[in-house]
Predict the structure.
Amino acid sequence: MIETDLLIIGAGPCGLFTVFEAGLIKLRCHLIDALAEPGGQLTEIYPKKPIYDIPGLPSILAGDLVKNLMEQAAPFKPGFTLGERAETLEKTNDGKWKLVTNKGTEHLAPIVVIAGGLGCFEPRKPNLDLLDKFEDKGVEYIIKDPEIYRGQNVVIAGGGDSALDWTLFLSEVAKSVTLVHRRTTFRGHPDSIQRVMDLASAGKIELLLNSEVTALHGEDHLDKVSITNFEENNTAERNTDHFIPLFGLSPKLGPIKDWQLNLNKESISVNTFDYSTNIPGIYAVGDINDYPGKLRLILCGFHEATLMVQSAFKRIYPEKNLVLKYTTVSGVNSF
């Protein structure tokens, strides 16, 4: 039986930062994650993708952010149960929570923090013939190593931040980049949209709007795609080495859905006072929670974790007076 103060489900950026904030007020943490290593989506999906909205860091690769968060959490000696999925949760006679993973590992804690990002997720795939045939043979849904695309012809499909960000990044790596979007407007950050438009105007990428990839071609490896323009009602072929459809992820809560939490589709409803759920002693922070005005940004998850641990401390130690200390004065080692 693994015992701790805060049992954190999810070892992504919000889960890792929770360790730091909890450690400052002397709360022990243990993290559970279905993935084999910490970092969540940042490690599993886009470790080489630059992130631009972390305060004080104009740009940092996702993998490097995970490395820094691990270093920041290290002084507080968190425990990890990796490669196992949180399965069942029940209240014990002494008011604590007993959590058992799909591999039978038992955990016990007075506080459970769900920081599971998007939960169990899988990429949304386009409806195309031969898609399965070319998966990992020219069709990729996740970019882990951009060097694979160096000197290659790449077609990206999508209209959100991932499609825009990877178009910008790969424009400096690939031989050619074509961005295909079924609409004329994007859902991404305005600055990213403008930069993509500027690249297209300068002839550094090809931008095809009102268009969609409608067919894949090749023998053992993808070598060509058909792209249909709906406005002009014509179809043209493009030689390509890689087709990357970035239509987002389809999140699924998995077993957490059966824990009697108040849900909004695949998200957990929380109180913005302390990000508590409808069940006392269970909190949710990061992309997995939902409330009016919610923004799914890492920096917002950091804020949520900071407030949450204050509430968790008071729940564990109702008789103690918690005084906020500033690390700029006291440093980390004094906590």
